[in-house]
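ugh finaly. both done.
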Amino acid sequence: MEKTAFTIYLATLIISPLLFGSVHTYAYTLMALGIFTGTLLLVIKNVRKDLKTGTYRFQLPNTSLNLFFLIMTGFLIIQVIPLPDCIVQMLSPEAWVVQQKSEPASSIVVNQSQGNVWASLSPYYYPVRMSIIRFTVYGLFFFGLIQVLNSQKRIELAVFLILTIGCFETIYGLAQTFSGSEHVWWFKKTRYLGDVTGTYGNRNHFAGLMEMCLLLAAGYAAGLSERRRKRKTVRKPELSLRAKISKYLSGEQRFNKRVLVIFAGVAIGIGLFFSASRGGILATAGAMLFMSLLFIFRKAHRRNGIVVLLLFLIIAVYCLHIGAEYPIGRFEHLNESFEARSRYAKKTLDLFEDYKLAGIGVGNFRYAYPRYQAVEDRRYYMRHTSNDWAQFLAEAGLIGFCLLLGLMSYYVLRTMKLWNMRRDTLAIGLGAAPLSAMAAVAIHSYSDFNLHYPADFLMFVAIIAIGYSALHLERHRGRDRTIYRYYDIPLKYKGFLALVLVSGFIAWAGIWSIRHFVAECYCNTVHNYSLNRDPNPSLEELGKAVSWDRYNAEYWYKLARELMRVRHPEASKPDRDIEARRKHRMEVIKALEQAVRLNPFKAEYHMRLGWAYVYLWRLLDHQQKWLSAADISINRATYFVGDINPSLHVHLANYWIMRSKTINPAKPEWKTAWARACWHYKKAQGIDGTKQQAERIVRFVWEYYPDEVFIRKVLSDKHHVLLKALK
């Protein structure tokens, strides 16, 4: 079982970066299922029968990261479990406000008092659930990999495979870039043309993979050196000819292996450099300097520090010889890029200010950020801000951020203490790799979001596991195995209950991984550029997607849009039964209300729901209820809309123009509706000041108010010339 699990882990580690960095559903699902399978085999292996007592016991590795994975997983769970309203209001007042806006407007009109409602700290459950699953996968991979890396042979095999991946990525990327093909497997690149990206679609995340592989190569090359020993005055016995030959060949083999590793590191470094990722280059330089200082501060291993610096120098010479004008030229525009990324980070910190303690929920950034996004970035859909530190601070709040820093500091201190105690060269060399990789990721995360690429995070965990196993490797007195501490848990009562709970949690993660994958097969909502998926699935496919994963709000929203598209022509026929049209509209409203209930951050959901209530009012003649519900939904959309979507502002303004015609002009409510319409129209023209946008506004307002006075009020000054066309 152990050998099979070892094979599965290595195969998963190899395949993950090759499949576009595992950012697509089929790739990260395959990665997760591989790790779940390997974990299942190890769980079975770790359940053993005590021959003396006859009881069954379970062995669990006792590592410096146990506390990290336990507490961080617990924190993620706390973000999504329902809590009393008083606790949510105390920890995250803004999250409570957002949760209140998820309640269907129609039910609020009927029942004004919502009472004591339990809510979660994260307004949208689905992204946090996916974060919990992925974090569980990474944790299981670490605990499983350290158990199967139980000998020097296996540790070195894992290292060689990682270096092979790095070399392949470099060779493949260089061939694709400089041949003019510019493909990633079957997909033709549309971005980062001229940059080496390997099998990735993004140069920065490719650079993140390369920097970790390069640091592993440097640490392994240092670990293959022989530690200089003090000379003794005692005369050594004369070796036999056979012993001399054996010693020579052994030294030559070690030397050749070291040269091979350095060559692999140079190849990986060239790929990193020609990715033209400025953050990756700077992070690698800083991390290699850090690694060299680690070795230099240990008197017996100062030569290894020189080896690391020499490797860096060789890479630089090769790159300059090949031609480094373009990568170096990108640093000339560093200030422009820094200005944009600083703006992203500043707006992310504005988001953090509203969810300061508990955050918005890990994974919820892309849904909450549009409300804060700068108008200068209106052409971009920000799935992640280009600063992992700022994004995690916004998603996890001060509580989660302090937990992360504290637990990682604990791991670093424990690792440094063990590293200083070791004298074995391989343990010292590979033991420095995780610390250096953490330094590289910490620096690179200031300008990119590498750890949101599953393959990069998996590689990061693999290097930490390799370093941990190497630091616990014993290679003297005939031993060649890792020595760990284990929790030996008797499977009686509490132990059995704990094993059932943990196994149930892992099973839950595995089941939802499969359900998520099947749902995405019917309706694709995860960004996927490697497969040509239909963006508009049928009603039947949308229904199946919802049945497999009912917590994804986008499935419900697409279902509502498809219902409107498919059935609307038939529903609008004059001879169609009123009851049938009402039933159709109720189906649309039900889907939209569910989308809003699941994800209240999306202004578009609220806007569509408001208009759906309006159409229902025209059928049922319940003006007070449905128009009041529509007003609530439109006000909610205004709360979340932000400054980047001119089309959405136009739709909201159109609503208030329509709404004003249902109000007596003598009432104050008419002035309020008209003022809101004007505000949204001016906002839309401020974001998108094109003539076409202004013409669309004029056409709509003219249908309700065919008067130049009213048209002039909704137009910006520079568009008043359009009035001449109406005369």
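ok and the 2nd:
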Amino acid sequence: MKISTRSNYLKIALLSVMTCLSTFTYAQFTVTDYSKADSLVRTMSKMIYNQVKHVKPLQDSTSFWYKTKSSDGQRYIIVDSEENKKRKAFNEERLCAQLSRQLGDTLIWDEINLSNESFSSQTDSFSFKYKGSKWLYLTNDNKLINKGEQKKEIPSAHWATARNELGNPPAVSPNKKWTAFIQEYNLFVKNIETGKTKQITFDGSPGEYYSSYIKWSPNSEFIAVHKFRPSEKRMIKFIESSPKDQLQPKLLEFEYLKPGDALPIKKPFLFSMDGMEGKLIAFGGFMNQYSLTDPEWRKDSRAFTIEYNQRGHQRYSVLQIDAETGELKVLAEENPETFFFYSGKKYRYDVNDGDEMIWMSERDGWNHLYLYNNEGKLKNQITSGKWVVRNVVHVDVDNREILFCASGKNKNEDPYHLHYYRIGFDGKGLTALTKENANHEVVFSLDYKYMVDYFSRADLPGKTVLRNAGNGKILQVLNETDISKLKDTNWKMPEVFTAKGRDGETDIWGLIYRPTNFDPSKKYPVIEYIYAGPHSSFVPKSFVGINRRFAGLAEFGFILVQIDGMGTSNRSKAFHDVCWKNLKDAGFPDRIKWMQAAAKKYPYMDIGRVGIFGGSAGGQSSTGAVLFHPEFYDVAVSSCGCHDNRMDKIWWNEQWMGYPIEAHYDSCSNVTNAYRLNGNLMLILGEVDDNVDPASTMQVADALIKAGKEFELVVLPGVNHTLGGDYGERKRRDFFIKHLLQSETPDWNK
């Protein structure tokens, strides 16, 4: 069987589509124009070859496998690190023929989309899922085995559902002599040999009971367990108007805590099997809880640790409780003036059963690593400087060395680029493993001796190399992304652009996207795609090639931009703190200055006509743009927005907006400020959104109606958290074309 190629077809189709697109005018757009824009994007997307995807280490090996797509179709490659060689994993033609034969169909290899692929450690078998079935291909024998239909996954509990503190099974002691369990809200212990049961506690009740998440010490002499006082659960309810399996609507209900809701309280208890006496740990200063982790015992049973997150996230403590005395000791603590980013920048590694601890902190203004002794005393700062540790990859205790990822260390380079380093526990011997001016996406072998590094930039096609993970030396170039066919078209590479932010000093980074029929003599409205969630940064740093969401919209005569303003993560703590109790800021002063600087350099960017769109946190921000900055933003399309931070999930919103729920929540609310609308706004939401309460968008609509404002509301029946899907994309295009180009859109009902 010959593997099909489509390069000639793609080139002919592209020329045809681009010829048609060049005739676009600002008078009237047709359904055909929309189809041609989408066809252009699809065609160009297929002109990027040899881009490496899904790099994974082989089990029980120092080697890797990865997938790439050449002009002849997808290829699976094995990298033998020790031999410094690469090879095809199997003959694709033979696998395609086998699959075609068993399915009774003629398959084209470059159109097959396999999923859940994996190789055996010896690479003599390849498993995958296709057409609802699991398959096993014996690569040496050219034998394909159908393992049967993929079992349907049992629906899991809703993501916001709290665990059942009484639902854990009995806990057997490590010496297999005892079983501990909860009965009638109290702790019991049963002797496995004799069957005799003893009640340990007597003060449990439905309103405050002992948790079934019981932790035995490794020597079976102690039990650590929390006493749990539950709080009232908040449920959100909404209607699925058009269910697929019945005519009548359905009422949906989910557990969903919101900011300000009462939270459970946990009290740690320690019990000794010697006399079976219990002891409440002196815990008075740690009762204002957001969370308290389960006990984790030291391997030698001398103590257990718990982590305390204070409500409002301005205090976070690592605590150790001595097994003999019950004495509580603070091993590490964060007390920032704003917030401790527990959900994204907390890292703890206990060295040699707690002899030392590696801890991550932003206490000096930048995210770095610190080394503590077993008494909670700081030994030394491990990393330092005006750059950011992004994550720890591996801790080599024997060699007292840390392998980590960081950004911002290299001067004259995008501060968001990921690079990899090694450093000693003592902060000495910092070694850069990646040096190229690019964003590095790295996968390590299981023994951390080798690394496959795909490095690229948004404006630079990628290269994939095999490196020695000890010193970063390149052993072999595995692949280089090929965009030669794309270069033959009028496709425009995204431009990385920087400008000073609101303070006149800080560099703000973003991207500019131009249409294929770009003409610098014309004026183009600017549309910003915004996501300003403080939990990360969002402007792409690796080579994507064709961003379908942006490219399709740009083809109608827009320039699109994407920017990371202040208030987002992965820069300094001060940069991040702008979001604190002030999510309406969303980096807008930086975004506006960035676009003004871009327009000064490129006069064809018409910042007298600016649109903005986004979803979720970006839905909140895009609506906020036309409420709080109508002097700059003219048109907004906002999808599934968390428009009032009191209406959204507790963990995300209290992380940035703090606790208690005071006036700043109201001042940041798009509902409260809906009367300010001075532009054109479209709201899009899925009616069964279980991520952001749909009522949040409906309350904005209600406030706009009461304020006498004009806007558009698009409700998508049966749809969850979304930017809008195909229908929403069409509505978004129509809205921007109508209000930024002053042009007619298609009559979709003809």
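summary for the 2nd one i guess: DSSP finds twelve helices and 44 strands in the chain.
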